[in-house]
Design goal:
Blueprint: E1 6-11, H1 26-36, E2 40-43, H2 48-58, E3 64-66, E4 71-75, E5 87-89, E6 92-96, H3 103-115, E7 119-121, H4 127-134, H5 138-144, E8 151-155, H6 160-172, E9 176-179, E10 184-187, H7 192-207, E11 212-221, H8 225-230, H9 232-240, E12 243-250, H10 265-268, E13 271-272, E14 278-279, H11 287-293, E15 294-296, H12 302-311
Helix pairs in contact: 1-12, 7-9
Amino acid sequence: MIRRTQTIYVTLEPFLSLRGIVLHHFDQFLQGLNEAEFPCIWLTGLTRAQLDEPRRRLGHEDPFIGESGCGVYLPEDYFHLKSGNTIRLGRFTCIPVATPQPAAAEALEELSADLGIAAVSLRSLSPRELVQNTGLPASEAERIRMRDFDELFFFAGASDSDIAKFAVEAKTRGFTLQNFGSFWSFSVGGDYAKCIRELGALYDRALRYHALRVGVAVTPTALTTNAVNSDMRLKSLAAACDRTIFLAERQPSSDSQNLDRVGELEDEVDEHDCTGEIHIPASRENAERHSANSFPLHSSDLWESVLASLLMRR
């Protein structure tokens, strides 16, 4: 019997390196959530193969949203109730939001050929080339391309204008393109917000009431509006969660403390314009609410503060 009042959705990459190293004492937060009986759902671009070892080591037994919002992965028998549309992937029951492979591989190849812009998928690389491009040992590098939904690739010799053109055409054709720095993720229908809503609906059905959805994400500064509007994953958290907690890598100057806040967006955001950007009325910007949803990432008592904030709303 699930007995939770809040579900916590965390963007995983800032807290777990590709080599599986835990960052920012993330394991302390997981322990605190476990003690409070709040499930922690990881949002990540990693695959289920890449997550096997970290999940075992950190004792993570809750669902995760993998491959950049392509699917919700449910541990076996986690829910007695199931979504109507599920597939079996290894040890997981998966709610597919994107179309499974080879759809992304084929669509990427077609788009690349149509535009004359070279897109090199990691799937196409030799083992040696894969190691060279990822900087990982062979066994770890192979897990990166064991993908159920999306295709990871990099542009070869493309200019900024070529990449911008590629991105526009991908969006026009209904594909999801996300930039991971060295690599890009390409999927047919990946959508973090839809994944959160699908999983949230299962929690609500299991509990027979609405379990609050709380997002936790890292932003460059505590001034979060620009970060949310420029990052698909952050925008999805803000749109699909009842509340979003931001962990700022840098703190703003004292004269800008009250200029920007994003949180509790179901109640606080007054409108989205035609571009899909989030607008927060200036009248609602105040220090008290800002501090309730934004914490300095490098604070020594970070997780104690975040957990206390969550428990206050239990």
